[in-house]
Amino acid sequence: MALNRKIAYIDLTSGKIETSKISVEMRKKYIGSRGLDAYLLYNHIKPGIDALGPENVAIVSAGLLVGTPASAACRVHVCAKSPLTNFYGSSNGGGFFAPELRWAGFDHLVITGKASEPVYLWVHNGEIEIRNAKNIWGKYVAESQQAIRDELGDRDIKVLTIGPGGEKLVRFANVMTGLKNSGGRTGMGAVLGSKNLKAVAARGTMDITLAHPREALDYNREFMTQITSSKVSQTQGRLGTPFIFGATNTQGLVNTHNSLLTQLENSDAVEAEAIDEYITGMAGCWGCGVHCRGKFVIPSGPYAGVYDEGPEYTHQVSYGSITGCRDTIAILEGTHLTNMYGLDVLEVGNLIAWAIELYEEGILTDEDTDGLELRWGNHEAVLEMTHRIARREGLGDILAEGGFRAAEIIGRDSIKHFVHVKGMGQMNSDEKATPALALNIATASRGADHLRSRPAIDLYHLPEDVLRKIYGQPVPYDGPLTSDYREYEGKAWEVFWQENCYMAVDSLGICKYHTTFLGATHPNFEEWSRLIYLITGLEMSPLDIWTAAERANNLERLFNMREGLKREDDWLVDRYFDLPNKLGIPAVRGRSIDREKFTKMIDEFYQYHGWDEKGIPTPETLKRLEIDKEPTHVL
Amino acid sequence: MGKVLVLDYEKCTGCRLCELVCSIQHEGVSNPSRSRIKVVKMEWEGQYVPVTCQQCESAPCMVICPVKAISRDESLNRVVVNYDTCIGCRMCIAICPFGGMSFDTPTQKVIKCDFCDGDPQCVRFCETKAIRYADASEQSLTKQVAVADKFIDIMQNAAAAITTV
């Protein structure tokens, strides 16, 4: 049954492993994966602990529909207290690991303590073994996975691993599976590294029984076609996420030169078309018809002949606009470096761009950089700095601590140049012209990030009645909605809606490219309600799913508040208000975020949640969502 | 000759949805280890090859079966197993040059592709058409066209080289 996968509690200090079932009641309340993880984190992590200490709890989980015919239901969620932000840490990745975890019998692994020497977990058909990883420690991401397959003698084992970045406790290290599937942001790789946990290997042959197999198969064919028949998914399947760059850069919405600019001029070498010259084909994650992972071989340089996957939009920005670079091969090489070290490419790009600005301003000198000329456009220096971060050498060692800590070490007002939310570096885009997206990054539970509440379709200038069709369900909304992405009106609702949409899709374990993210006609609550019923037999209305998502989002909020989050943390750096766009189309030039309007927007956003003006969930809200007694320690 | 599964590994993205839908169609469960088709992946080189029964005209499994449980069903151009006769000796698995015959542990039976009785689910779900249900002659036609393309290139390049000289 799709509902019978268990939770395993693994104490790496004592080596003790226990398991428990997940009741139908808890399923209905939290669905699974990120939703139930919110409950588990809130219940298992004591406030104020050291994120890199043994008392932190790392949870690895697979969504409710993972490993079933639901389209692209392949996502793994890894969460813990973040060593980067000291708030809620959360990573979500694709690939093939999560389904394998479910065929091996588990949905959640709750990992506590610290092993006395490097270990990995071997999860196999209902059993879990802690195995020595001394011979694997130190290996790169792909090599680590192959070494475990070789050791256990099964080429079909799927491995979630950390690379050298996580081992060296780089505070924004990823967990990785396959060549490039990344659980990025907030440094979950460093948490695993701090526990001496190199990897989790899974292999399973246990049935997932479906409630209505024939109907589930037929409906998924429809569900998949709804996605793959759209232009946006077809383009993505042809070019991968790099296709986004052309549209956003042309308009002037891309993070360029550490957010001093919003457009990379003369960007030919960074565009999807330039990258496409090196793409030999596309690869798909588990059960996905979109197949957005590019395959390439690096043609020249120190990694000539090396095969890898990507690049993503994130690499175009980190090794392109944000650092001012214009070299296609450098983008391919940067992709390979972040993949092999297991580093978050967004944070790498953001921090190096920050360091470049500091160097250009004279705040960092040649002495700080060991002679490396950190100038806009010096792609060789950017690549070299990536190595130094991963190996924790020189300035790289300082940047590996993340922006807040690095700014303390560097001093000299360097913090004023760090573009972040909640201590996590700003990502690809620049939202000075787009208040909806600005609100998204300011309030996202894991810091400056697009994957927690971004109304990306707000950029499409959709007619109001279309917006109303999307954002007017499953709860009625009759407030304003505006097509113009520069407006403030109605946008708070969009962000609130997307927050619940993304929580639900993360709880189901489906990829965000298969819901209302890039595609306006993609499935959401109503379609999921049907999928859940056909696959698991659970009857959850679209509204039930929405409420479960809202519940989990509120628990993430409570977690953050318990760690000291204040309303002031839901805010943007001054650059967003005081530095109007200089480049881009006329519609965005001269735009910046208006402090007063943005404050009102946040008020409105809080009201939709049932939070008070300080951003704290009110007792009525907690009661309505049945989380007023948390932590209840049921699981 | 009737229809066969035409597999084009160059189009395969390695998503393995074919394995999943196969297991649901035949066993009613989601479990790729019980699928009749497998995508063999050379992950670190980016090569993905779908492998299944070729429904051979002169099938080694048919020849080696000691109890004559395997026969050809000409109506659907497929090789079928008669489970009333099959003794589960797995000789068919041993002899098959393609790995087209597998063993299903839960039911203790050999299993193989049966074209889903004429509506192969792997084909229905393969978005890139790496698996097609088509007339066997089409397989060679596709290759002939590809070779023709190459041939034209070669001849034109040669002609250009001669002209330059």
Report on the architecture of this protein.
The complex is a heterodimer of chains A (635) and B (165). Chain A has 635 residues and is α+β, with helices and mostly antiparallel strands. In chain A, 39% of the residues lie in helices and 13% in strands. Chain A contains 25 helices and 18 strands. In chain A, the strands form 5 sheets. A 6-stranded mixed sheet of chain A has the order 2-1-6-3-4-5, with helices on both faces. The radius of gyration of chain A is 23 Å and the shape is globular. With 165 residues, chain B is of the alpha+beta class. Chain B has one domain: Alpha-Beta Plaits, CATH 3.30.70.20. Chain B is built from 5 helices and 9 strands. Chain B has a two-stranded antiparallel sheet. Chain B has a two-stranded antiparallel ribbon with strand order 3-4. In chain B, strands 5-6 form a two-stranded antiparallel sheet. The longest helix of chain B has 29 residues, at 136-164. The mean pLDDT of chain B is 94.
Helix content of chain B: 25-40%
Mean pLDDT across all amino acids of chain A = 97
Q: Please provide the count of β strands of chain A.
A: 18
Give the class-level CATH name of chain B: Alpha Beta
* DSSP strand tally of chain B: 9
Shape of chain A: globular
Q: Termini distance of chain A?
A: 20 Å
Say what oligomer this is. Answer: heterodimer
* Distance linking N and C termini of chain B: 50 Å
Give the topology string of chain B: H per helix, E per strand: EHEEEHEEHEEHEH
What is the name of the CATH superfamily of the largest domain in chain A?
Aldehyde ferredoxin oxidoreductase, N-terminal domain
Biggest interface, CB < 8 A: A-B, 38 and 30 residues
Mean pLDDT of chain B: 94
The domain count of chain B comes to: 1
CATH topology of chain B: the name is Alpha-Beta Plaits
- CATH level-3 fold name of the largest domain in chain A: Aldehyde Ferredoxin Oxidoreductase,  A, domain 1
Strand content of chain B: 15-25%
Binned, the helix content of chain A reads 25-40%
Principal-axes shape call of chain B: elongated
